[in-house]
Amino acid sequence: MDRLADIARLMIVSDLDHTMVDHHDSEDLSLLRFNALWESNYRDNSLLVFSTGRSPTLYKELRKEKPMLTPDITIMSVGTEITYGNSMVPDDGWVKILNQKWDRNIVSEETSKFTELSLQSETEQRPHKVSFYVQKDKAQDIMKALSARLEERGLDVKIIYSGGQDLDILPQGAGKGQALAYLLKKFKSDDKLPENTLVCGDSGNDAELFSIPDVHGVMVSNAQEELLQWHAANAKDNPIIIHATERCAAGIIQAIGHFNLGPNTSPRDVTDLSDSKMDNFDPGYEVVKLYLFYERWRRGEVDHSELYLAKLKAVCSGSGIFVHPSGVEQLLRDCVDSLKPCYGDKHGKQFRVWVDQVLPVKISSDSWLVKFKKWEQSGEPLPSI
Ligand code: GLC
Ligand code: MG
């Protein structure tokens, strides 16, 4: 992980399902609010870590379904797989640690004797994770019996129950908390320990995250009973863990504010986007704002006034250019002009725009090169071919 030359201001380690991603928010508004906050204020000085129970296969599916950012580090399969960067380079050192006292075949053999356990899909069975479904009322007894049985067979495993239905069996040294501890240790040995870390979760497999010393924690308002019970029994006196009153990503934003970890106003919550911070110019912030304006203009949510476009053109330098991935270059001011005929063309549609990996580089005393990915969701079915 060498994207950041400096120490990260904030490292967010967040679960995905029902924490970063709200499956009951069909417009994904809280996720989009978080995205705009992250890209405008944190992307170039902080670290985003996703820590999910999903296997790489299901994680990639979620990324296709939801407007998610690209994390700096991805921890999958309940802390058993750690990868870095865009190209998801695996951490082989972590794999070696997990091989200790672990034998998947013995786990399969012993679990097959429990008829109450039903195996999850093939994609969710991983080298260091065996996963089942089990009914809530049977979970505690099964976990006890199973752990005694596996111990007798010489294994040292961890059994985790999540979401009132999922039972995961992992090596003892695995899990979301251990994976985070491993990362923190690595950062520390490089003298790169983040200034602050915030862990975010909603269910049983997130509990360990809240037991790592010195990290702030937020259990989102919609957290599962099993996590709240764990917290009441193990961590209720820890003042740097809160139970948010807001759901999912909105709860994460709430925690950033509560613990004073940095800016906590998402540009999506700002109605007047025309305030140009020229005295304290921040190119990442400007890019986020530009695309928010573009979304609102096409949705017809701002007045149909050419004044906005004139203001936008005024802040664009005459020589500023936009370089399309195809290589075609266009003057920024011409790009603004091309917005004119699009006003309101997405009115009443689920049209959303978000930017990802906004990374500015200063190339001379008064110019910046900002690279970013821009995504659009049109809310319209794709044309059939
Ligand atoms: C995700 C995984 C599943 C796991 C659950 C709880 O849903 O896909 O395999 O059991 O998280 O950790
Ligand atoms: Mg979750």
Automatic annotation (TrEMBL):
Cofactor(s) this protein requires: Mg(2+)
Pathway: Glycan biosynthesis; sucrose biosynthesis; sucrose from D-fructose 6-phosphate and UDP-alpha-D-glucose: step 2/2
Tagged with keyword Magnesium: yes
GO molecular function: magnesium ion binding; sucrose-phosphate phosphatase activity
InterPro entries found in the cross-reference section: HAD-like_sf, HAD-SF_hydro_IIB, HAD_sf, NTF2-like_dom_sf, SPP-like_dom, SPP_C, Sucrose_Phosphatase, Sucrose_phosphatase_pln/cyn
Top enzyme class: hydrolase
Name recorded for this polypeptide: Sucrose-phosphatase
Organism of provenance: Buddleja alternifolia
Taxonomy of the source species: Eukaryota, Viridiplantae, Streptophyta, Embryophyta, Tracheophyta
